[in-house]
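so my prof wants the structure for this chain in the tokens format not the other one, which i didnt know existed until like an hour ago. anyway here's the sequence
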Amino acid sequence: MKPKVLFLCTGNSARSQMAEGYLRSVAGERFDAMSAGIEPKGVNPFAVTAMREIGIDISSQRSKDVREFLGAPVQYVVTVCSNAREKCPVFPATVKFIHWDLEDPAAVHGTKEEKLDAFRKTRDEIMARIKKEFGEPEKTLAP
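here's what i got, hopefully its the right format
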């Protein structure tokens, strides 16, 4: 049975969605990647675009409420924002809690390109953190 990794943020619209998609794509043979939000808001189209640029399609992912995972055996809970860490429910079977305080790319105002750049920056940071925390990816993706 693969260890379950739950990426958790406030809206489950960008950071946690990108992390779920990336881990599933590069290490799906080793981990079961999931994501959820404290207050799910739907997947952000800029997150879909940023991930598509590196060959990962997250367009079929959906925003999920963290309550869907309560009581499930989750080995890793990764909070990607302070709000999620503060409001994270208890997962008794969790082996490890990890916190990444990532900037919210959806909070960036500006042109479409400036917004997309914020999502790219967050995506790249997520990729680096996943590599550090969960090991080298099993496959290489286009930059």
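also thought this was worth mentioning. The CA atoms of residues 105 and 118 lie 5 Å apart.
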